[in-house]
Structure formats: C-alpha cells, structure tokens
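[09:14] KT: can someone run the structure on this one? pasting the chain below
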Amino acid sequence: MQMNETEKVLLQLTGRALFNAPADFDPATTDWFTLYQETSCQALTTLIWDILKDEERTCIPDEVSKRWEQNSLFHIIHNEQLLYEQRQVINLLNAVGIPCMILKGSSSAVFYPNPSLRIMGDIDLLVKPEQQKAAVEILQADGYGEVLDENHHCHMSISKGGITVEIHKEPNGLFLNEESECVRKIRAYFNDAIERMQYVGDLPVLADDQPAIVLLIHKMEHFMTSGLGLRQMCDWAVFVKNRLDSKLWEQLQPKLAEFGILYFAGIMTRVCVAYLGLPEEFAPWAVEYDAETANKVIEQILKEGNFGIKSDKYAERLFSNPGAANRLASLITVLFSVSRSNWPVCKQHPVLLPVAPFVLFGRYLMQRSRGERPKLNLMQKYRQAGMDQKLYQSLRPFMSRSLDGNQ
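[09:31] RB: done, structure tokens below
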C-alpha cells in the first residue's frame, strides 16, 4: 500500500511505544501538527507523546507541543477517573449479588508497557443476561441517568458525570451474523463466563482464552461497521505478545476455526507484525496469512480512524454485510437482523418482518427531524460499500474452516 510520511512515522512510533521497535525518521522534516492530529484520530495521543525523545520534541512547534501535552494529561486524568468509578460500580453490583467482570478497557491496558497510557473510552462490564436490567436499575439508583441505547443488541449504556458504563449481556460483535451456527457456538461458549472469571490484581476479567475471542469479535464488529482504529489493534498486539504463547495458541486455534474467526485472527496478527512492530517470534504463524489482505486492512484502519472518526460510515453496513452474496442481499439481511434485534416480537411472529423495515425507516425520519441522525444518502452508501463488502467477505467472518484451510 502507499502510505504518506505521517502514517509511516505514526506506525513506527507505535511500534516503539509497544515493543521498543526502531523508528527511523527525520524529526526535522516531520509534519508534527498532522502527526498529532493522526494520534488523536487513532486514540494514541498519550501513548505516542510519552515515548518521544528529547531531540524529537525540540522539533515540534511550541503550539503543537503544548496542545499535545495538555491532551495527554487530560486522558491520563480521565483514565484515573474511569478506573475509580469502575471499582465503585463493581463493588456496588457485587454488594447486591450481581457478579460482573470487565470486558475490555482496563483488562486490555494491563498488557501495555505502561497501562496508564492506554486511552480508555468508557466502562464495559459483563453480567448474566437475566441480571442486566437489575444491574442498570441499581446504577440508576446511584445517580446514573436513563438508558442511552435501549435497542442495542448486547448492552445498555448509562452515564453519570461524563462517564459512561455499558452493561453487557454478551460480548460485542455477534449481531454481524446472528443466525450463523458459529455465532450460536460463541454465545454458548460465554454462557458460563461469569462463573469462570478470574482476577488480575483486583480486576475481575475473562478467563483462559475468552479474552482473545472477545478482542477478535469486537475488532471484527468495528472494522465492518463503525470503523476500527489503531488503539484496538494495539490491544491485540500486546495481548499476542504477553498472553498468546505457543501453548495457548495451540489450544485456541481449534476454537477459532470452529467459531469462524481463525482467518480474521491470522490477518489481524499479520497486520501487527508487519506494521505495529510486534516481533515475529511471538507469532511466527502469522506469516502464513495473506499479505495483500493485511495491506488492505491497515489501509482502511488508517483511513477511518478510531470508531470511524475520519470517515462517514453511517448506514454503510446496510450494503456491506459479509455474509450476504451482494449489496442488495446485504440490505435485506441487515434490515431483518436489526428488526429482530429491536423488536423481539418479530422472532416470535416472522410474518411481521416484511413490515418492520418500514417502521425502522419511519423511526429514522423522526430521529433525523430531531437532529439525532445524519442525512442518509442510500445511493452514495451503496456505491461506497462495494469494495468494503469484498474486503469483509475475504476475511471470512463466522465461517467455520478446517485448520489446514486457513489460506
């Protein structure tokens, strides 16, 4: 792929921050303002600022340096606030007999060279599905507000004082192909996640190989919907180095194949080795996966930024579902999937499904009139989705494969 100089420097500095990889660039000719913007778009501001050398900092314009330092300090303080509130919420739920565990965020940060530099967005907690509503009510009694996304497929979000807590009944990402046998197997695999949880320090986290699966399906969801950023790729890179040794990989491989995410795992790891400085010795198997597909993946990550902040992907997933044969089939698949997710009655009475998409469109129009949704240009999204759908299909999401067929 053709990367510009700023993107090359960003990737080299990311490798230095995570793995002390060499970064060969000329600080005197670097466009530091654009680099700072890129670190912000990729949620790496603090991570990169921390590892800049003195001779590099002297080349940064004063205004850029000041903004960068202030932004980094803000995120470090915000991380501390999130960690404090996370502990309070966990204690509160445990006190009323609702066990919970951390899905992402701080459970990923522990693998970074300096965990405090991994920018956190919100607090993601997993509870038993039958306790999700009770957990939300407990937090609301503690001052949290109304549910922000009552129709979300897997979590309920509530906020207090600028901090958002997502109470999950299952990990993100499974709605991409909820009718797949692979997805049903993944759901079954997480049925006893709460019973199996373990502690890292005082953090209740997923046990054994479950964190790997959560990281992968979360990346898959964002890559194929809102957009995947370098921060999420860094989470996978440091996990591979610190947890995914040859023994765990040997145990994990058959599950990934059964769950239809083995090829995706291989491509994501190849990206980490090729572009983020992950030493090949920690994932020698990654070189077996297609370099051209890895190139396309990193290109899209750099283009879109963290959660798609650099691009407009709103509603593009209507036409880019990787399980559909083409874009029109994708439209039908996604509309019916969203209808079943938003209105469970459609599962009980499938005869209502043909009507549900029109209800969805009517709801969109009402939200659009209130300024809650952007303008939707379906023809533009249809054209944009063509290449993306082909890339997503090439990653074979939730498609079971034999271990000898990963190429």
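[09:33] KT: thanks! The chain has a mean pLDDT of 89.
[09:34] RB: yep, looked fine to me
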